[in-house]
Amino acid sequence: MNDVARSLALFVLAALTEIGGAWLVWQGVREHRGWVFVGAGVVVLGVYGFVATLQPDAHFGRILAAYGGVFVAGSLAWGMVMDGFRPDRYDVTGAVVCLLGVAVIMYAPRPV
């Protein structure tokens, strides 16, 4: 697998773990589903921290800055699937702008 494909797969995995963990905590606290949900969410959020370290790029700031855009788009998608959220055109436009930012930050050609 090349570095771009690996990076994209890791961004998806990071989104699933961070957003999923936060969603579990939300369910436990806001939806009164209990401490098992909260505890599971905390564990899954911890896994997210490790996933980010697997990115092929070695620059923490770049990885986390780019991941922010993935998080925005992923959060909207998660809300659609898990909570029936219907994003409006501004949500979608904002997510597209964020993903364009991810592409520029992570995959723009740089001198070696």
Topology of this structure?
Layout lengths: L2 H27 L5 H18 L7 H24 L5 H19 L5
Characterization of this structure:
This protein has 112 residues and is mostly helical. It has one domain (3-107). Helix content is 79%, strand content 0%. The chain contains four helices and no strands. The protein has helices spanning 3-29, 35-52, 60-83, 89-107. Helix 1 packs antiparallel against helix 2 (35-52), helix 1 packs across helix 3 and helix 3 (60-83) runs antiparallel to helix 4 (89-107). The protein is flat and about 50 Å long. It starts with a helix and ends in a 5-residue tail after the last helix. The mean pLDDT is 96.
From the structure above, extract its key features.
mainly alpha; 112 residues; flat; 4 helices
Please indicate the percent range of residues in DSSP E strands (runs of 2 or more). under 5%
Helix and strand content put the structural class at mainly alpha
Uncertain segments are none
Count of spatially separate domains: 1
Tally of DSSP β-strands: 0
Mean pLDDT value: 96
From the alpha carbons, calculate the radius of gyration and give it in angstroms.
15 Å
* N→C terminal distance: 21 Å
Please estimate the helix content.
over 70%
Instruction: Please outline the major beta sheet.
Output: none
Number of helices: 4
Order of helices and strands: HHHH
Tell me the overall shape.
Answer: flat
Produce a short descriptive summary:
The chain is mainly α and 112 residues long.
